[in-house]
Each structure stands twice: as C-alpha cells, then as structure tokens.
RNA sequence: GCGGGAGUAGCUCAGGUGGUUAGAGCACCAGAUUGUGGCUCUGGGGGUCGCGGGUUCAAGUCCCGUCUCUCGCCCCA
C-alpha cells in the first residue's frame, strides 16, 4: 500500500464532523449537569483484570474483542472496551464511598476488536452516566429520564423506543436461568447452532436470538416474571411507576437481556430502526454486584452508555460555526495595523479571521467562503480618518465606524 | 470469527462484449476584477483506476490473492 490510511475500524473526525460530535457531548453534559451529574474521566487503559473481573472472562468483549497488551514493565493492560468498569475502579481507588450517591458523567474513546460496520468501529466514543451507591429505584428512574432528556434535546427521541426489562436480583436470576436451561435443553434439537453455544455460556441470550426457529421456541419459553422474588418484583414495579411519573414512555420487553455478567434488576435500551443492525443507541442497567467483584465494599450502582457516533448518525445537527468577522487591510500600513486590531477584537471575545495574504478581492472571497457575516476593510484613507469600514455581507451595505467605537459597536450588533 | 456486495480525481459518479493520450459535475487554484465577496465567463492543477500478482500483442475492463468500506450473523454503543 503506497499511502497510509487510518487503521481498520478507526476514523478521523474532521472539523464539520467534529462540530456534530461535540454538540452531542455538549448536549449530554448540559443535561447531565441539570440532573446533578458531574463530569469526570478515567484513563483509556487499565489493568486487564479490571475488565476481566467485571465484565466476565467469558464475555465476548473480554475474550475476543479486547485490545490487550503487555507494556514494557510487564503489566497486563487493556484499552477500555467500556466505561463502567473504569469508573467503578476509580470509585474504589479514590475512596469515593464517602460521596454516595456518586453521580458521574463521562465521555471518551472505547476500543473493541470487532468487525467494522456502519455505526460500529474499533475505536468509537461513548457518553456515559453512572450513579454509584444508590439502591433505590428512583436512581434507575433518574438515570433513564436523563437519557431520554438527552435524546429529546438532540431531537431524536421520537426515533427511539425505550425497551425495559428486569433481570431480577441474583436469587431471581439464578432461578430463572435454571428454568431456561431446563426448557431449552428439552428442545435442543430445534435450537440454532449459535443458541446451543449460548445454552452453555449465557442462556439468557437465547431470548434475544434472531434465528427464526429460536424465536418460535422463545415465544413459549418461561418468563422471568414467574421467577422474580417479591423484592425484585416490587423493585421493577417501582421503576415502572417512576418512569410513568417522569413522563418517559417505555415498552416492557421480556426478551431484553444483557451480555455482561454484572447486570442485575433494571436493564434498558433506547433502540432505533434507523441504523440497520446497530439498533442500540443508549443502553445500560443496574449492576449491584460489580463494585464488590472489583474488590470494593458491596455497593449498588446503575448507569448507561451511549454511542456518540450512533447519536450523530441519528441526529442531523447543522454544524453551526460561530459568527466571525474578516479583517481586510489594504496596503502595508493597514496590514500592520490589522494585526493589532485583530488582537484587540479577540481580547474582546469577537472572533475574527485575518487572512495572511491576497488582495482585497481574494480576502473578501475567502471571508465569504468561511461564512463570515461581514468584513472590516481599511486602508490609508480610513486610517487617516480614524475609522474602519464595516461591510455587512447579507445586505452588502457598508458603514464607516470610528475606530474607538468599534468594539462597542460590534458588541451591540450581537 | 462466518456469509454476501463494492472500491475510477478531494466528493458524487460515467467509462456495452479487453483496444491506443481515462472523462463529467461539484470542489480547488488562477485570470477577467492589483480598494470589495456571492453571480457569470475563460483557463489550470489534480488519477501508477485500493494494492500485489496472473492471462493477453493489449487490462480500469478478465482471473487469483490481499486491504479497506459496506449489508447480514455473532456481539454490542
């Protein structure tokens, strides 16, 4: 290959794209802060065990998709495939149990060695929300409502459906799992090849199968409702009631399950039909056992992650450049003066573009192309009079403004 | 990891059954217009046709491999 190209599954984010990318983050950050979540970040890589122990050794994310490596010091590290494990590790490392409930918002790159597709990359980016140290269903409701608020602000809530389910507490889950294994084992002959593997590894996932034959079996499979303990059932009822109170519509989907071991109780997904096979836009759930698995004191938690690229694909925000003004000097003296003027305006928080070269025509053309709303033109004549000409591109009108009044004039204009 | 589709200029794409200097639109640059942008006109730069190999007198075109993208499965955001 003659030329370098980005590594498979990675993408450059060029300025126009970045504007959309950032607007998703900004929107999420704003909504999160309105709900009392504070932004934080953890490293992009961790000791491998942080992920292996939390997500489960056998999960695909850990066993086949992890960017794991040994550094020069012999440490076994991995690029993070998700955010939850790292934030929980940080919760433990920093003794944050004194701050519970700890409410965090974060975003950043994630890495999974998967086969790339639209809406699925090897380096992708997530926004993430976690509440650690809250066992109450109100936390579930708040976290989900926050996700819905972000989707609403992005103008894509109506393209998404909120699917909701419960996996119960550990006791419920064990009982349900056993019931599923019994049921599907009795029908092994008609199970798909994939589902036979699932039966060994993660029987719950059979419920999620897309195979035609599996679906028929699943239709008659036992439902978790019958295996929930009283407490787990009450918890789920409280979450549903809370969502209704919050005005967040949802659809209970008994087939919604999670791939990762650490989930308990509430599981949810905002899904869309607009992204092909990559339907999940924001997904998460409760993980009451996770902190303990990572070596902390038993601490409940709940959170979700949303794929920024997927959110960008779904929304189509017009990249809106900040209003900018071009400075167009004429002649050598003006050229020098322009540098001073640009500095003066920028210190006053007025965005200006000062071309490096070209005659008036060129600079005007460039100013127009950049989307400037106007240009400040001045040469020897204007300098002698102590004014600059402000040309408004929309109207084509020009006005002479005293140099001393310029900042005030431009401020007033906005 | 498995199965399908596709790669020609920065972008969107033309290039019947192989045939000689590979095209268009948009974009970019320059000039008409060295103190005035958008519109128009004129000209220009830019491609080892994803990459490597094979068949042939001759390959963008046919064959094989490979890389990347894409659709689905797996899995997931």
- Uncertain runs with pLDDT below 50, 5 residues or more? none
How many β-strands, per DSSP? Answer: 16
Q: What general form does the structure show?
A: elongated
Largest sheet: spatial strand order: 1-5-6-11-10-9-7-8
State the helix count.
Answer: 15
* The named CATH superfamily of the largest domain: Bira Bifunctional Protein, Domain 2
Sequence-ordered SSE layout with sheet pairings:
Blueprint: H1 15-34, E1 38-39, E2 45-47, H2 48-55, H3 60-63, E3 68-70, E4 76-79, H4 84-93, E5 102-111, E6 123-132, H5 137-153, E7 160-166, H6 170-185, H7 193-201, H8 212-219, H9 230-246, E8 251-252, E9 264-272, E10 280-286, H10 290-293, E11 301-307, H11 308-314, E12 325-329, H12 332-347, E13 352-354, H13 360-369, E14 374-378, H14 380-385, E15 387-392, E16 398-402, H15 406-413
This protein binds one RNA strand of 77 nucleotides through strand 6, strand 10, strand 11, helix 11 and helix 13.
Description:
The chain is an alpha+beta fold and about 425 residues long. The chain folds into two domains: about 240 residues, BirA Bifunctional Protein, domain 2 (2-Layer Sandwich), CATH 3.30.930; about 90 residues, Rossmann fold (3-Layer(aba) Sandwich). The protein has 15 helices and 16 strands. The strands form three sheets. An eight-stranded mixed beta sheet has the order 1-5-6-11-10-9-7-8, with helices on both faces. A hairpin with a 5-residue loop joins strand 3 and strand 4. Helix 1 runs antiparallel to helix 5 and helix 5 runs parallel beside helix 9. It binds one RNA strand of 77 nucleotides through strand 6, strand 10, strand 11, helix 11 and helix 13.
């Amino acid at each position: 290959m003659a030329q370098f190209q980005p590594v498979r599954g990675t993408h450059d984010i060029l300025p126009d794209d970045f504007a959309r990318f950032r607007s998703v983050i900004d929107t999420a950050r704003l909504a999160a802060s309105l709900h009392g979540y504070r932004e934080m970040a953890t490293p992009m890589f961790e000791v491998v065990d942080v992920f292996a122990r939390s997500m489960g050794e056998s999960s695909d994310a850990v066993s086949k998709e992890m960017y794991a490596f040994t550094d020069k010091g012999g440490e076994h590290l991995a690029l993070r495939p998700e955010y939850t494990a790292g934030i929980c590790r940080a919760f433990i490392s920093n003794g944050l149990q004194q701050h519970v409930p700890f409410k965090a918002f974060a975003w950043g790159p994630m890495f999974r060695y998967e086969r790339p597709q639209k809406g699925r990359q090897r380096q992708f980016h997530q926004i993430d929300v976690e509440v650690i140290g809250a066992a109450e269903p109100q936390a579930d409701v708040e976290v989900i409502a926050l996700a819905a608020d972000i989707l609403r602000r992005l103008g894509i809530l109506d393209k998404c459906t909120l699917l909701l389910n419960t996996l119960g507490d550990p006791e419920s889950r064990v009982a349900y799992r056993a019931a599923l294994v019994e049921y599907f084992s009795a029908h092994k002959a008609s199970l798909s090849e994939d589902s036979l593997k699932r039966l060994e590894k993660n029987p719950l996932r059979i419920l999620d199968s897309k195979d035609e034959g599996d679906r028929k079996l699943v239709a008659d499979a036992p439902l978790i409702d019958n295996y929930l303990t009283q407490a787990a059932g009450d918890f789920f009822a409280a979450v549903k009631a809370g969502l209704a109170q919050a005005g967040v519509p949802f659809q209970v989907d008994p087939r919604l399950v999670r791939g990762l071991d650490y989930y308990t109780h509430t599981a949810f997904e905002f899904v869309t039909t607009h992204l092909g096979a990559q339907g999940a836009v924001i997904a998460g759930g409760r993980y009451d056992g996770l902190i303990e698995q990572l070596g902390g004191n038993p601490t409940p938690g709940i959170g979700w992650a949303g794929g920024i690229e997927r959110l960008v694909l779904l929304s189509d925000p017009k990249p809106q450049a900040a209003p900018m003004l071009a400075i167009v000097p004429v002649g050598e003296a003006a050229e020098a003066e322009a540098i001073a003027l640009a500095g003066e305006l920028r210190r006053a928080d007025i965005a200006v573009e000062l071309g490096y070269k070209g005659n008036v025509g060129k600079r005007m053309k460039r100013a127009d192309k950049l989307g400037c709303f106007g240009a400040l033109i001045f040469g020897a004549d204007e300098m002698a009079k102590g004014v600059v000409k402000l040309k408004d591109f929309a109207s084509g009108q020009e006005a002479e403004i005293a140099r001393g009044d310029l900042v005030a004039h431009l401020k007033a204009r906005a």
